């Protein structure tokens, strides 16, 4: 019997770990595709970077590279027009030009490499001795904390933070760096560098770095140093390839004032044109007569005659190689500059210096007297000499003066601040810009008006006992007292003695009107000491006084002289008083104006012109300081003839009466015996003046300007002299001797150089 085999279970293999399927080895074609992809990606990124750089170069940096590319082939160079000369009436040169060497910085041409830049910078700084400057980098000031930073900086510098803020934020918006102090001394620069570390946005930079950063990328040259020695200039120019971004030229002209500070207020000076002035003149358009680095007139004749003096710039196109070295010129494209015109003044330079010396001596004498009496020091004044027959100004002096040559080369902030802080303000031309009460020198003008209007006659007299009392509407026994300068009085005074003796009481009557005041029952009147009777005013009144001073004698408006900075003066009236001071006009205001006091103010030149019109018999000439303009060949281009602005609306007989009173001032009045140099054979007429101001005590003032004016010869005046010594006390004491010396010089009685008798 067959047996069946035994049944067995399913025999499975032992379990094993499951591994991922292996990647099949790439084929040769697959390996090639991956490499191509990577290569293409790298190429795309590379080309993208190149395109981005090209975009930056063509868009953002296009001006820089365009300027560099053009500069390596053809470059435009300006040919500067020489500024016109200024000479006196005899041809003596007062302002001229001197060719000088200048080092320029072209920011766009500076090397990009830091090491090369530093090498160029260090060489130039050492060679030129460039100073450090303290600047505020406006974009770096912390937002919202700008004022705090500037206040802290102000504390360091010892100046109000508000002043710094005004300086920094008044600068043009595109000016990122603003200089707040320049020409720093080494120790000052070191100290400020330490302080700047805690003041964000404040830096001490060398001038080279300041200019390079302020005009970064600009192709417009900026001045690094002016008027450097010729040997140094030639050394720097010898190898231009070694100093990229630096140019040296001798085409710049430096303004010189060989006549000295005596002429500073007449001439003014030249200074860099501001961006606002450049833009106003036309900006970068071809019609603009200026270049961004030009100098323009500041003050005096330099500013007033700027269009005639500046000339017309020319230019040339030069070929340069890659090293920026000139290799040729496109002669056919050259445009020659046209020199500015020569300005011939009416000034006599010899007389100007003599007048300056005479005025300086008068100021010193007044100062000595003031100090002896314990009063404030005296240090300023004016002297004017003009021809009353034509209005020509022969000398015009304002003291103290300043050295205008220093402004050409540039003052440090400390030097400029010292001028601003000087209590006698040397930068102010008091002759045309100072406004002062004329005091008694206005009395001849009031006499003319009073005679013309009939409020006084040659026979009119008034009693002077040293003062008058003017009651008020509500207080007949009280009121205000108005004194005469002579406490004992002048007794009975007519118009001739009123002028000669400068009697205030007489001119109170010329000025105060006869109207009935508001709320009153009778016309304005006054009382004389010791006399109970009422004396009634019958004078001009402020309306007619203003009319004559403005329309006839030219007060309250510029004279029109060819000098920059002329002031208007002030002729007050009731409307002005209320609008300005919120006060109502009273008879006292009219009385003060009648003797040249109160709110009345004029410039010395305004007063001189008005008195010259009286001296010459009634013709008001516009004052002139420019005689003619000449071209470079010496030909007269324009002649400035005498300009009779108007005839005084005063009858000839009244003018002669006033002239007689002024003659009596010298022979029998307040100037009697004061002329010792001029000589008795030269008849002189004049008028003293003492303009009091400040706070009065018992009707008297502690401060007074000393005035004197004179013309000669009396019968046929050829010259008028006006002298003002500010705070100089009585006019007859110090101002008259100055006029005496000036007239003696004019008529040849003393030497203009030494002051010795001729």
- Cα Rg: 40 Å
Helix percentage range: 25-40%
Q: Strand share of the residues?
A: 15-25%
- Give the tally of β-strands: 28
Give a quick account of the main beta sheet: strands, pairing sense, barrel closure.
Answer: 7 strands, mixed
Number of helical segments?
25
Tell me the structural class.
alpha+beta
Oligomer: single chain
Shape: elongated
The stretches of 5 or more residues where confidence is low (pLDDT under 50) are: 1-18
Average residue-wise pLDDT? 89
Terminal CA distance reads 184 Å
Structural description of this entry:
The structure is a single chain. The chain is α+β, with helices and mostly antiparallel strands. It is 35% helix and 23% strand. It is built from 25 helices and 28 strands. The strands form nine sheets. Strands 2, 3, 7, 8, 13, 23 and 24 form a seven-stranded mixed β-sheet that branches. Strands 15-14-28-27-26 form a five-stranded antiparallel β-sheet, with helices on both faces. A hairpin with a 6-residue loop joins strand 14 and strand 15 (393-399). Helix 4 crosses helix 5, helix 17 (443-453) packs antiparallel against helix 24 (652-667) and helix 19 packs across helix 22 (587-594). The chain is elongated, with a radius of gyration of 40 Å. Residues 1-18 have low confidence and may be disordered.
